[in-house]
Amino acid sequence: MDIKVSKSAAVDCRVGLAVFFVPENSSRGKESAMTDADGFLALARKSGDFSGRDGEILTCYNPGSGPDRIMFVGCGSDPLDAEGVRLASGRAIRAAAKLKSPQVVFTPLRGSSLSPVLMAEALCEGAVLAAYRFNKYRKPDDDEAENEISELIISSPSATVSMRRGVSLGMIKARAACSARDMANEPGNVWTPEAFAAVARNLEKNTGLTCRVFGEKEMRKAGMGGLLGVNQGSGKPPRLVVLEYQQGRKKMSPLLLVGKGLTFDSGGISLKPGAGMEEMKYDMCGGACVVAVMAAIAELAPENKHIIALVPATENLPGPDALKPGDIITICDGTTVEVINTDAEGRLILADALAWGIKKYKPGAVIDVATLTGAAIIGLGHHRTAMLSNDDSLAAGITAAGDDTGEPLWRLPLGKEYAKQLKSEVADLKNVGGRPAGTITAACFLEKFVKDTPWVHLDIAGTAWGYTEKSYIPGSGASGVGVRTLIEFIRNWRG
User: Fold this and answer.
1) Given this model, what pLDDT does residue 142 score?
2) Which one of 110-114, 249-253, 301-305 scores highest in mean pLDDT?
3) CA 56 to CA 76: how far, in whole Å?
4) N or C: which end of the chain has fewer CB within 10 A?
5) Phi, psi of 409 (to 5 degrees)
6) Could you list the active site residues?
């Protein structure tokens, strides 16, 4: 979908559909102008067919010049924030797709307190994210191609530079989230550890990012017993992908992003139940998130930023050499770990990435993103991402970014009382702390390898797929959660 800003009034655009966003019980204009949108709206209100309630949609034909149809999208009575605009935009795009109109024009909401930049950004995000489809492996329905919207025009008589800037930012953020969705929606036999490496190399070729890819030889030299151990049951070799962006001051402490890249998780020897195991192709959503973020940062090209992303990538399968419960492995910093449950593998590969990345790059802050624990779903459902942190300021910044992008988080505590659950009789740590506080003890495990570095852990197990259905988030498949939150955080991050 191409998106542009035009000075032309929506009612003058010769397109298939013009969309107007209408607050509940607002007064838009004269009731006698039967050939323009205000007249149609006045008649609809008078007849009781439309009031502007949140989610209400009314479509009518236009007998005059301009658009073939006019659509009114209700926005409710509450003041519309950016998330409300995204939701309204997503509803409009979904409704427009059913009308088979390849060109659509939006008129931004009248009287909104949002700046032109934020209004345009939110409209674009809602539209692009709502238009997303993953049909790569499915034969199209007879009329499906006609349902694609090729062009969205945002009607702004002033056509301000700031509104165009908002369109550009909104498209970059939304397309990055869609890129993460694409990676996650690929089946496990296609999206392998090497696929992560391939997309990283391609980014280096086409952007200003630099890329390094570690194979087994480099991992053994670095002593990455967590990543190598989890990989033992797979026939596909592991990869550690490193992407780096640097612009501006040379001596900047970087921000380190670490994304879990478990391209398929059977649970290993501690085999998961068969029902729903196909969804374990999504266990690499954290890795997809940070790769998509790095691609967006390369496109945005912010000054005075140094960002490094690591993706430890492997499968977790019950092959003949797979890790067994009771085995002891050694993380690259020398910490020994008793493996109680081979299905608690994500923390093992993240431990290597965190320990190695912090020693190598000495970051000013670390954020890891992972589909880490089923306990996060038990605690928070599919509505909020679990967040744990050792730094209040960093946690506040991530929380604010999540609120701004409509991806809310909920902070859980850390503490020595939880860390005690990880005590092992035969090693430095065990990889699970039992059922109580499972999300917290998993984060406590990771904290051992972060030490004093400011750090935030995002457990997206409940939001990476099966997320709260919104007009711009599909009810099934990957959500792309975390991408827009991290982009927004990085834009405001001062290091």
Assistant:
1) 59
2) 301-305
3) 9
4) C
5) -120, 160
6) 272, 347
The CA distances from residue 436 to 222, 376, 390, 419, in Å, are: 34, 12, 21, 12
- To which residue do tokens 């509104």 refer? 163
Q: Which residues contact 130 (CB under 8 A, 6 or more apart)?
A: 89, 90, 91, 93, 94, 471, 472
> Which strands form 17-22's sheet, in the order they lie side by side?
2-6, 151-155, 103-107, 17-22, 69-74, 57-61
The domain at 191-492 falls in which architecture?
3-Layer(aba) Sandwich (3.40)
* CA 477 – CA 482 distance, rounded (Å): 15
pTM reported for the whole predicted model: 0.95
Q: Where are the domains of the chain?
A: 2-174, 191-492
Q: What is the pLDDT of residue 25?
A: 67
DSSP reduced 3-state for 23: coil
Split at pLDDT 50, 70, 90, the class of 145 is low
Bridge partners of residue 410, in order along the sequence: 386
E strands of 117-273, at which residues? 151-155, 210-214, 239-247, 255-259, 261-265
Token pair 């002033």 is found at 158
The CB-based long-range contact list for 80-83 (8 Å cut-off, 24+ gap) reads: 80/21, 80/23, 80/109, 80/112, 80/114, 81/114, 82/114, 82/118, 82/121, 82/122, 82/404, 82/406, 83/122, 83/406
Phi, psi of 34 (to 5 degrees): -70, -15
Q: Which residues are CB-contacts of 393 (< 8 A; sequence separation ≥ 6)?
A: 454
Q: Which two tokens stand for residue 69?
A: 């149809």
Read off the pLDDT band of 144 (50, 70, 90).
low
Phi/psi for 126 (5° steps) reads -60, -40
The single-letter DSSP state of residue 260 is: -
232-259 CB burial, b ≥16 within 10 A, e <16: bbbebbbbbbbbbbbeeeeebebbbbbb
| Least confident span in 111-115, 317-321, 345-349, 391-395 | 111-115
Determine the topology of domain 2-174 in CATH.
Leucine Aminopeptidase, subunit E; domain 1 (3.40.220)
Extract long-range pairs of 298-304: CB within 8 Å, 24+ residues apart: 298/203, 298/207, 298/208, 298/209, 298/245, 299/172, 299/207, 300/169, 300/172, 300/487, 300/491, 301/208, 301/247, 302/247, 302/490, 302/491, 303/247, 303/248, 304/247, 304/248, 304/249, 304/252, 304/495
Alpha-carbon span 470 to 239, nearest angstrom = 34
Tens-place pLDDT, residues 12-57: 888 999 999 998 866 544 333 334 677 888 888 888 889 999 989 9
